[in-house]
Design goal:
The protein is of the alpha/beta class and about 350 residues long. The protein folds into two domains: about 15-60 and about 160-335, 3-Layer(aba) Sandwich (QueA-like); about 65-140. The protein contains seven helices and 17 strands. A nine-stranded mixed sheet has the order 2-1-17-16-14-3-12-13-15.
Amino acid sequence: MSAVAMGREAAAPPERRGLARDGVRLMAVRPDGIAHAVFRDLPDLLEPGDLVVVNTSATLPARLDVRRADGTRTPLHVSTALDDGDWVVELRRPDNDGPDRGVEPGTEVDLPGGVRLRLLAGFPDPAQATRLWRARPEPWVPAAAHLLRHGTPIRYGYLSAAVPLSDARNVYATEPGSAENASAGRPFTDRLLVRLMSRGIPVAPVVLHAGVSSPELHEPPAPERFRVPEVTARLVAGTRAAGRRVVAVGTTVTRALESATGEDGTTRPAEGWTDLVLGPDRPARVVTGLVTGLHAPDASHLLLLEAVAGRAMVEDAYAAAVAEGYLWHEYGDTMLFLP
């Protein structure tokens, strides 16, 4: 799994590399082997009656350039807003190569628009120093509104240039709220969605507002706000009763669906915050197929992939991705696990 270190990052969206959105590579991973295709071939890799579930959360421009007390300019990533109006943020180092681990409670930074932000305590555990902080703006402003006015999309060092917000959103995204794009769904196009439905493969929505995706080694995902509507829960139940596959588009969809699924395996309408961590100790109960991008080897996302597909299939897929030169990160290539 050394592809990231070998420089196989996608440094720009596929449209900037001469490809269509749905022209990235797609690896189909089944128990009987691996096949290589293009993302627009997805309808031919599924069966009529399968259900595809997408996350309709839309990306916010969640990066702010802020000024510290000593005058230093540095990026701030806004991960989410809490129910009481506080923000959850990650203060980055000035060169944006990682979170600033030297900050302490009470640190203040000046945001664009005349707002000052005070770091209160670690998040989600106030007693533990972390890269994520609960923070309070003065004067108080809603996080989403402030970002839409002053923010830019989050970007990391492997990107060759900043990208417009339209490039950082999926075509079916309707509800702004994610710090970063639920990028497994980025290769979908309007035409591809129509092809799925015309083949008898319905597409159903959930919402999970994803936080920042820059966890440290083996760090579990933070709590995230989600919603599984009644119509989606009903379609999941019908799909399972018919013996067909429930295919989650991305780890965010998997987390939302599994958060709404009880020990009896029944998915019910649900909304709120989820701190569910999927892995070998909590395998998937309802998701039986998964579309995903390629994640860094030590990311907690890989445990979620194993919760759906098992460790052997995930290891085989990543070995094939390295051998075949697949591209990593949110604008890279994709995999379809059908365990």
